[in-house]
Amino acid sequence: MKIDFASKTVIVTGGTRGIGASLVDMFHQSNANIIATGTKNKELEKLNAKTKRKKTNYFHLDFTLENSVQDF
Q: Which secondary-structure segment (H or E) carries 9?
C-alpha cells in the first residue's frame, strides 16, 4: 500500500542519521514536503547540497539549547 503525502509537510527531528534518516527516505518516497533537523551544521550543509529535491530541507535544531529552539 502506498500512502501519498503530496500535499503534506512533515517535520523529522534527528533526520540526519539512523531512524530519522530512514523516516526522511520514507516520506521522500511518499512525496511529502520534508523539514528535517539535526545538530551538526557540516552534516546539514552536506545534506542540503546533496538533496536534489527542493521539497526536502535540513535545519539546525538542538533541543538542549533554548535559543536554538526559538530560532527554529
A: strand 9-12
Three-class SS of residue 67? helix
DSSP codes, 14-66: TTTSHHHHHHHHHHHHTT-EEEEEES-HHHHHHHHHH---TTEEEEE--TT-H
**Farthest CA pair distance, the chain:** 41
Q: pLDDT by residue (tens digit) across 6-34?
A: 999 999 999 999 999 999 999 999 999 99
Copy the grid coordinates of residue 61: 535544531
Tell me phi and psi for residue 13, to 5 degrees: -80, 145
The set of cell numbers assigned to 29 is 518516497
Neighbours of 37 (CB within 10 A): 21
